[in-house]
Amino acid sequence: MLSKLFKSVIVFLVGVMILTACGSIPGSTSEPTPTAVPFVEADTRVVSEGRLVPYESKQLSFFSGGQVDEVLVKEGDQVKKGDVLARLGNREELESTIANAQVELLAAQQALKSLTDDLPEAQTAALQALNDARDGLRDAERKMRGFDVPPDQIDVDVARANLALAKKSLEAARKKYKPYENKPENDYRRATYLSKLADAQDRYDGAERELNRLIGVTPLDFELEQAQTELDIAQAKLQQAQDKHELLKNGPDPDDVANAEARITATEASLAAARAALSHLELVATIDGTVVSQDLIVGQQVSVGQAVMTVADLSKMYAETDDLTEIEVVRISEGQVTKIAPDALPDLELGGKVESINKIFEEKRGDVTYTTRILLDKVDPSLRWGMTVAITFEE
Fold first, then answer.
1. Which domains does the chain have, with CATH numbers?
2. Which residue did the predictor score with more confidence, 118 or 315?
3. Beta partners for 348?
């Protein structure tokens, strides 16, 4: 494409040649009269064709696929950034998940707080547990020491007396049970006397074992092993109680704090994920502007990333041209004043300033061109996105 300046020069030269040729007519005997050629000043301004585009526009799509449940706007509506424009269905499960996560988060936060609030009570309980463990250890040690000490005669006499009393009680219980021995199992009196007989037998067996232990009739291996086990358990309980008391002296148990904090972190992550998933069911405006296209209907199935709505900021507009060649663009600079005339509105003259010139070239129609954007000084209500305009760059 020849530049506009070069075309103007060609037209000017052709005009001069025509006027010169007309100055001499063949067959005339008179001297030709020189014809004055008027001075024509060539228009050296750069003129380009462009289109009107909004100051900013965004094509919107859902981050999740599904069925459209609500459409909250129509074409021409004004919206603000963050406004919900449409929603997909199947929200109930996510809303329930969010509600449950909120309850769990509150419980986790209260559990962490209670570790501090309940510290005095926990410290008292730890001290009591320590004292109980010490008492238990002393009892277990005393029992172990008892195996190494010969029994007193009075203990043996008492054991014999207890065995005699237990034997008498056992015989009495057997005698009372005997008349009901063959009664049905669900007979109330049979069940009562049988229970009493069993208790009497247990007391007799216990008294017999105690006497045998004191007089050395039965081996002591089992009882000694049992006593040793009880001592080991008492020592372990004491160590646990000491550790717990030591931990709580200077504050809550660090393990309890770590567990409570981990519970909070996990719940917060679950809550954030559920909220994000719910937000993906909403189509949200990302800029202030006008809904210029809206293709959604309730019940429609949409897929992730499918463009379903366009919002444009028409409060300001650009005239954008990709018609400037490498010869012309060097005469253009950012901030340069322009005149803009829409083809559809020839009587409307607009002003503007160059806002940006692409650094990267394109090849169009055989020329190297650079896309340039001019910000209009004002926006007329009759202007529309995509209108063609003539752009004159003032020098």
1. 1-44 (no CATH), 45-87+289-393 (2.40.30.170), 117-257 (no CATH)
2. 315
3. none
